[in-house]
Design a protein that fits this description.
- GO terms for molecular function: DNA binding; DNA-binding transcription factor activity.
- The chain has three domains: 3-69, Winged helix-like DNA-binding domain superfamily/Winged helix DNA-binding domain (Arc Repressor Mutant, subunit A, Orthogonal Bundle), CATH 1.10.10; 89-164 and 267-312, 3-Layer(aba) Sandwich (D-Maltodextrin-Binding Protein, domain 2); 167-258, Periplasmic binding protein-like II (D-Maltodextrin-Binding Protein, domain 2, 3-Layer(aba) Sandwich).
- It is built from nine helices and 14 strands.
- Helix 1 crosses helix 4.
- The protein is an alpha+beta fold and 314 residues long.
- The mean pLDDT is 85.
């Protein structure tokens, strides 16, 4: 298995065409075909299917390409680290975030980092936790600052809690919902969620499961943060928010908290990456800045336990 073969597989899969891949890689189509045929022969499995519609990955190809992208990602890391050691502070930094992250110290750290390193290309991708795990596996992001409920319990990625904040159930300020004091009173109501209602790591799923109450079935899933805000403040849908959201000017006076007798689990914001020992110098610099910023947080944030560092998938 050679690097140029994996690179050819990645480009062909992304283009869906040998012709287009040849143009991008600046090598002939026969050379690409031979590289992929040799790769298939070495593995003893077909990686691609060819048809009039183009080239598609087989299940074997879909499995291999995840590893191929991760390998390519690590090679780029190694190259950028060497360039940094040689004094050239440039490269690309791709960071995954969940919506809650943008309300905390992340934006200020990002601003200061870009000012200090103007030659670094930075991509910030808003993703859901499951997408962050997939992106880390594929190597399409360097690390993520993400929110989740509670501490993870599996062991694949590195996880480091940065800070904690409270969660609140809310409705728009003039919602006609009668007075309620229990989750059971809200099961039949319509909810708004960023995650699937059956997602065990999501707020709604975690909240109802912890209390032994069947989760609501009438849930509108909305993965757009902007549309989530619009729906939460203009419809009768019940939504869930981290405490910092209520300090945002565009939400002031537009939401009403629902106080229940059941405790609502806190939201933990933390750093997650494939391996903290293998992050690039640029990533390490950004991570150190976000750690430092989190040390001086005040209400509505609470600092995470820096000793609680481990590897995890969830």
């Amino acid at each position: 298995m050679k690097l140029y073969q994996l690179r050819a597989l990645i480009v062909v899969a992304e283009c869906g065409s040998m012709h287009e891949a040849s143009r991008i890689l600046h090598i002939s189509q026969p050379a690409i075909s031979k590289a992929l045929s040799d790769l298939e022969a070495g593995l003893g499995a077909p990686l691609l299917t060819r048809s009039a519609k183009g080239v598609q990955l087989t299940p074997f190809g879909q499995s291999l390409i995840r590893h191929a992208r991760a390998i390519e990602h690590e090679i780029r890391h190694a190259r950028e680290d060497i360039e940094t050691l040689l004094g050239a502070v440039r490269g690309t930094l791709t960071i995954g975030v969940t919506p809650v992250t943008s309300v905390g110290p992340f934006a200020d750290v990002l601003r200061r980092f870009t000012e200090a390193h103007p030659d670094v290309t930075i991509n910030v991708l808003e993703l859901r936790p499951m997408q962050i795990r997939e992106s880390l596996t594929e190597g399409s992001i360097d690390f993520a600052v993400m929110s989740r409920i509670g501490e993870p319990d599996a062991s694949r990625f590195y996880w480091e809690p940065l800070y904690t904040t409270s969660n609140h159930i809310a409705v728009r300020s003039d919602n006609p919902l009668p007075s309620v004091n229990s989750l059971a009173d809200l099961v039949a109501s319509r909810w708004l969620s960023l995650d699937r209602p059956d997602d065990a790591t999501g707020v709604i799923g975690t909240l109802f499961d912890a209390q032994g109450v069947e989760p609501p079935t009438n849930v509108l899933r909305c993965m757009s943060t902007g549309l989530y805000v619009e729906l939460a403040t203009t419809t009768n849908l019940i939504s869930v928010w981290g405490a910092p959201a209520f300090q945002l000017p565009y939400l002031e006076g537009r939401l009403r908290k629902i106080v229940l007798r059941e405790p609502i689990p806190d939201l933990v914001v933390g750093l997650v990456c494939r391996d903290i020992e293998l992050v690039t110098k640029l990533s390490a610099t950004f991570i150190d800045m976000i750690r430092s910023a989190c040390k001086s947080l005040s209400t509505p944030y609470r600092r995470g336990d820096s000793r609680a560092k481990r590897r995890t998938t969830k």
